[in-house]
Every structure is written in C-alpha cells, then in structure tokens.
UniProtKB/TrEMBL annotation:
It comes from the Bacteria. The keyword ATP-binding applies. Keywords: ATP-binding, Nucleotide-binding, Transport. Belongs to the ABC transporter superfamily. This is ATP-binding cassette domain-containing protein. PANTHER family: ABC TRANSPORTER, ATP-BINDING PROTEIN. InterPro entries: AAA+_ATPase, ABC_transporter-like_ATP-bd, P-loop_NTPase. SUPFAM superfamilies: P-loop containing nucleoside triphosphate hydrolases (SSF52540). One of its GO terms (molecular function) is ATP binding. It comes from Aeromicrobium wangtongii.
Length: 305
C-alpha cells in the first residue's frame, strides 16, 4: 500500500528530450491514469520509475527506491510493454519460475491464474496465446507477489470489451483494498470510468495532474445551454465576461463560464431564464484540448515532430 512519489524525472535519447521534469504522486486507494499521445514518454517514465532506464530524478515507494526494496515483486507489480515469455514453457510454469526466487508459494500461482481467468489454459504455451491472453498472463505476473502497488503500461491492450470490463473491476477492487494503481491507457472513455486521478503529459512534459473531475471541468469545451427571451440583454453581459455565446435554434450555447456565472449575470441585467442545462466536456475532449496545447508548445519551441 505504498505512496509513490516521482520527483523531477527526466530522460534524453541522444539530443531528443523524451521526459522533462515530471513530478507526481500516486496515492494508496486510488487508480491514477497516465495519459499522453503516442510517443509522449509514458513508457519511458514508467521505466524510469522502476530504475530500468537511466535518467534524472527519483521515484520512491513509501520512501524507498525500487532498487532499495527487499522483495520488489511483493511491493510493486509491473506490466510493461515488452513481455518476456519463454516460448516453450507453460504459462503456469512461467509464473512458478517468477514466484520461486521471491519465495512465493505455488498456491499463489494458481490463485492469480484464476484471478485473470486463465485456469483452463494455464498448461498451454504463451507463444500460442492471443494478445489478450498474453496480456492476462502479464497481469497475473504483476499480481503474483500480492503487491501494494501496481504500475501497468497499457494493460487493456488486446482485451475484448468483456476483458476491459473485467480489468476495470479488478483494478478498482485492488485500489479499494488500499493499493496504489498507476495505469496508462489509450482508451480515454475507459480511463474516464476507471481512474479517479490523472497524470497527463505531452512531449514528455506535465500538462495536468489531479482529479479526473477537475481535468474535465476545467476544459473550455464544457458548455451551458440556456433559453431566455432576453438574449439581447444577456449576451453583451456574457461577452463582457469573456464567454463565447452561440445561438442554437431557440437556445444560446455559452462557453467559457460556469452555470453559476451565467445565473448571476442574468440576475444582474434582469434577464429571465426559462431553461438552463450544463454539459461537461468528455475526458476525450479535455484530453484533446490539453494535448493540442502541447502541440502548440512544440511549435513555439521549434522542436522536430
Ligand atoms: N530506446 C529508445 N531509443 C531512442 N528513442 C526512444 C527510445 N525509447 C523511446 N524513445 C523515444 O522517446 C519518446 C517517448 O517514447 P515512449 O515509448 O516513452 O512514449 P509512449 O508515450 O509510451 O508512447 P506510446 O503511447 O506510443 O507507447 C519517443 O519519441 C520515442 O521515440
């Protein structure tokens, strides 16, 4: 049940700066989603957190670096993109080989095989597994040591819709037990239901870090739709507040201000409101908006694409 603290992580590949000064925490009891466009540095960041890549900064698990943990597998379960499965060893034996040096009993191997739904095929060779089955085996390996912390890079890759729902329930229940879960995914809609916290990066730099609901509610793509017979009175007041107002049939769609601000402005100018609804941006919209800013940033820096 470790508090993960990543401080000032950085990494260059030659002249290319892949990760720049990333600091964040992942708290026990939470699922923290790690989002960023392709090539933005998510895998590199995870590798840095686990001491697999040399770079700048430090990551601690309840104050200890990964290298300082006595039995890392019992503290931190990991799933990274490259899955080193032995081509001829059975899935169950693959897990036993990982378990033995960590003093994890065979009983636990059977438990995790069942948890990931591979009981019927655990005698088979991972080389013959589908992408989704291979992914389940990787998740089983991450869970072997019953770790308090999970770092999972794209665990939903290759899973079908049932598999994605299963994974969501699994990760949420592991977090509910007090574990810290740090997970990257391209599936934004899924991340919106899975994660309660987000770390969003673009071009290796931090774009947003905090609760999912704050990330979404701060997006300017949310809107307030209202119906008023006094649009001529209200629109100038909203414009003066920096809002954008767009007529939509009998309605007025307002962006850039909250519903409360619209209500207050209406009262101040004596405009009647007959209907008012709010629409929050989706996580996808908020993500595209945030990472669009990062593309803009790239343009101003003159970096290669
Ligand atoms: N071993 C390497 N040598 C050189 N460049 C690398 C290496 N690994 C990653 N990079 C570069 O670092 C940047 C970040 O890559 P990384 O794989 O961490 O991104 P990512 O966010 O995980 O991408 P994806 O979502 O596509 O998996 C990319 O520009 C990538 O080309």
């Amino acid at each position: 049940m470790a508090l993960i603290e990543a401080r000032s992580l950085g990494k260059s590949f030659g002249t290319h700066r892949a990760v720049e000064d990333l600091s964040f925490t992942v708290r026990p009891g939470s699922v923290t989603g790690f989002l960023g466009p392709n090539g933005s540095g998510k895998s590199t960041t995870m590798r840095l957190m686990l001491g697999l890549d040399r770079g700048e900064g430090v990551t601690t698990y309840d104050g200890l670096t990964f290298g300082e943990l006595d039995h890392p597998m019992r503290h931190v379960g990991t799933l990274l993109e490259a899955k080193p499965f032995h081509p001829t060893r059975s899935a169950r034996n693959h897990l036993r080989m990982l378990a033995a040096p960590n003093h994890i009993p065979d009983r636990r191997v059977d438990e995790v095989v069942e948890m990931v739904g591979l009981t019927g095929v655990a005698g088979g060779k991972p080389g013959k597994f589908s992408l989704g089955m291979g992914q389940r085996l990787g998740i089983a390996a991450a869970l072997l040591g019953d770790p308090g912390t999970l770092i999972l890079d794209e665990p939903s890759n290759g899973l079908d819709p049932q598999g994605i729902t299963w994974l969501r329930n699994l990760l949420r229940s592991l977090a509910a037990e007090g574990r810290s879960v740090f997970v990257s995914s391209h599936l934004l809609q899924e991340m919106g239901v899975l994660a309660d916290q987000l770390v969003v990066i673009g071009r290796g730099r931090m774009l947003a870090n905090g609760p999912v609901r704050d990330f979404v509610s701060h997006s300017s793509l949310g809107s307030v739709t209202l119906r008023t017979p006094d649009a001529a009175l209200l629109r100038p007041a909203l414009d003066a507040m920096g809002a954008t107002t767009t007529p939509d049939g009998d309605d007025l769609v307002v962006r850039g201000v909250t519903a409360e601000q619209v209500g207050d402005a209406a009262q101040a100018v004596g405009a009647r409101i007959h209907q008012l609804t709010t629409r929050q941006a989706t996580l996808e919209e908020a993500f595209l908006e945030a990472t669009g800013l990062s593309e803009e940033f790239r343009g101003t820096q003159g970096e290669p694409s």
